[in-house]
Amino acid sequence: CPQYEVKLCYLELMEPSFKQALQDAPSDTYVMPLFLHQGWHFKYDITELISLAEIQVTMLPPLTFDVPLVEALYGRLMALPPQDGVLVIYSHGSKVSETQIHLTKLGAELQAKSGFKCVEVLAHGSPSLAEICKQYADAGEHRITILPHFLFSGVWQQKLEQEVQRLEYDL
C-alpha cells in the first residue's frame, strides 16, 4: 500500500507496543488488528487504547469473514484425503459472545462448502475439546479431525498438541 505508512505493533508481551504506536501515529490513522474474531482484545483492550489516543483512529474489522481466509481454510480441508467423520474447528477465542457467533458462522460456511460435519470449540468455552471428542467417539465417529483456527502458531498451538496427545490416549 504505497499511500499508507504501515507499522507493526503488539498489544502485549512484545515491542513496539500498540499504545506507543498510537502515540507516534499521524493524526488520521487506520488500525488493522490481526485478530480472527471480535474477542476481548478487539472489543475492549484495543478500543480503550484508541479512546485514549489524541488522534482520529479508524479500526478495521477482524479477519473472520474475509473471503480469502474462508477460502484458505477450505483449501486446507480439500488437501486432506477423502474421509468421513467430524471436523472440529478449534479456536483460542474469547468469552465474548461475538466470538462464538463468528466461529459458528465460519463452521456453517465450511460445512456447506466442504460437506464435512463441522463443530466449533473455543479453548475457554463449554463444551471443551475433550467433551466434544468424547461425545463424537461415543456416537461411533471413527475420525475426528481438528482444524486449529489460530492466526499464529505459538503457545495455543502447543497447548492444542498436548491436549490432542491426551485425547488420543484417553479415547
Instruction: Tell me the total number of β-strands.
Output: 5
User: What structural class do the secondary elements suggest?
Assistant: alpha/beta
Rg measurement, Å: 19 Å
Low-confidence stretches: none
* Sheet of most strands: 3 strands, parallel
- Element-by-element helix/strand order: HEHEHEHEHEH
Oligomer: single chain
Protein architecture, described:
The chain has 171 residues and is of the alpha/beta class. It is 44% helix and 15% strand. It contains six helices and five strands, in the order αβαβαβαβαβα. The strands form two sheets. The protein has a three-stranded parallel β-sheet, with helices on both faces. It has a two-stranded parallel sheet with strand order 1-2. It is elongated and about 60 Å long.
Q: What's the quick description here?
A:
It contains six helices and five strands.
Detail the topology: elements first, then pairings.
Elements: H1 18-24, E1 28-31, H2 40-52, E2 56-59, H3 67-78, E3 86-91, H4 97-114, E4 117-122, H5 129-138, E5 144-148, H6 155-170
Helix pairs in contact: 3-4
